[in-house]
DNA sequence: GGCTGCCATGTAAACGATTTCATCGTCGCC
DNA sequence: GGCGACGATGAAATCGTTTACATGGCAGCC
């Protein structure tokens, strides 16, 4: 009937040792004598003892929490990175505190509050719109940036965004397209900038025209992809291929085009970016740039764990390779 | 150069009061005199004091953590529930610990460990395959089940799964379909059972045949939807309409059908379940049963907060209404 | 045999808050 | 004017660990 959970004191009493020995048995078993160790372990089993993480964290001056900042938790792209993060953090006894940076206008203030409140031992930033200054205060814990860098010196796991865009352009150019358009992410976002730059540079490299009217603004959502499709329809001189800065937008765009009777890829070829799971299940399948999302999360978590362990704010950076996945949404340029 | 964070002691010293008064000023401002309160608050501002959550939690015998059990974090359906949960939990100073119940074979054991380790003040269960016994040990904190019930007496936020299935069937029957098939979720999952039962009952109510060959087994993933499409192709006597137990499966199925040249809805009508965002962006749009995912999360979190506040394991339950969203993937039965 | 040194363990002081209980005024009332 | 009550504050215990330091015993060595 002891609904109370056993404490280290109880274990110590049962095993006939001091709490120090119990603690040592659990954290560094090799420093206690074999006999004592066994006595303690059986006392642990008998009492059903579990270490109280809160107390442990307090004493060890850590929080056991990693704060993950992301713009939109409902985006499947992010959730898969989360899965990667979790697979490393959970075994390391860290829990993820997920903060949606998009909710509400006071987001920036709430954020600073969060960052400096000592609620987290580390930070994983998935939001490309956060300012480097916000992230480099003295009170801000070690941080790893994911998928972006913005000239900051913080360690990061980045994806070859520019090269990804170039892969898309080259693929389309190889298929004979000469009029290639682009739908960007939201302005100010690093992903947006790099992919757009990579796109423009690749066009130039292939000697293809960069046409301002063909660069449409989106915001990574399906809705904005659909809007881009409508905008495309209203263009006088329409590109025969579109490279969209995210799969979500590409899906929204493709759906909107198809429901207007425009054929993909016969009338227009579509390339996305991300390779989210659904891309292969569409008809036609979506040609896209693959980013290994789980790996990204895993590497980010590993780097962060290293930083926390070595108590530094500097860490390694890593660049993750992207690949073109050709599918049915791209085809030869129409006449 | 005091990179150290201020403690309540520092504030007390600066304000010339005791730590007790500082603590009171912050947690129940009305019991301290106005003058003292102001002195304390300005000392707080001056020192940049933030309460140390870990210490506070330890003293107050809480963890400040809610454990969320879900089968697959990458599923967009769940992430939106998470968003709803977060919107309630974060303001209440709770953080979410997300545990993927699917990873690894020792999942069940790890789970029990988690549940009883006192790591969480509450539990939100999104996984329909967990056994009620696992969730009702004396050491398990207050729990709310989401989207399921399995005869358990635990409080829950459930969705009208059976009625949703009936809505789908009636919609198809109204369109003249008499041969209606179903793709289920994974066996043993409560959602699977209830939706299948609702499906069968609705067929019977409309006087339509229940044909075992037309009930295909899936597991809620796109891949299994695609597999169902292939299975459908191999049927001798093919249903003219399919109700799939999740949108993901419906998408996988529709994509696979279309890429085989089978037209939706001319050759076969498709109904999903969930109304995930992408459903409206497909071409044709996916007819589906809408569950208000964010609301579900919000209500579950609210109920849990109530339970924690009143220190009980019993809470209210709530049933969330579903709606049919007709889109282009359903049409009149072919001749 | 006595000294050095190491190994295993215990003692007790943190960690930073909350909260009970005691104390000290001050006010009101008879 | 004295007594009771109440309102505001402080002192100190407590939450459950971890860990620096002290202690005691035993082996090894001259």
Q: How much of the sequence of chain A is in beta strands?
A: 5-15%
How much helicity do the residues of chain A have? 40-55%
Using the coordinates above, name the CATH class of the largest domain in chain A.
Alpha Beta
Largest interface: A-B, 55 and 56 residues
The CATH topology of the largest domain in chain A is: Rossmann fold
Q: Quick one: biggest sheet of chain A?
A: 6 strands, parallel
Low-confidence stretches of chain A: none
- Structural class call of chain A reads alpha/beta
Number of strands of chain A: 12
pLDDT averaged residue by residue of chain A: 90
**How many structurally independent domains of chain A?**
3
- The SSE order of chain A reads HHHHEHEHEEEHEHEHEHEEHEE
Largest sheet of chain A, order of strands side by side? 2-1-3-4-5-11
Give the second-level CATH assignment, the architecture of the largest domain in chain A: 3-Layer(aba) Sandwich
**Number of distinct helices of chain A:** 11
CATH superfamily of the largest domain in chain A: Response regulator
The best one-word shape of chain A is elongated
- Rg of chain A is 26 Å
Oligomeric state as shown: homodimer
The end-to-end span of chain A amounts to 82 Å
Q: How is this structure best described in words?
A:
The structure is a homodimer of 335-residue chains. Chain A is an alpha/beta fold and 335 residues long. Chain A has 11 helices and 12 strands. In chain A, the strands form 3 sheets. Chain A has a 6-stranded parallel beta sheet, covered by helices on one side. The first copy, chain A, starts with 7 loop residues before the first helix and ends in a 10-residue tail after the last strand. At the A-B interface, helix 4, helix 5, strand 2, helix 9 and helix 10 of A face helix 4, helix 5, strand 2, helix 9 and helix 10 of B. Chain B binds a DNA duplex (30 and 30 nucleotides) through helix 2 and helix 4.
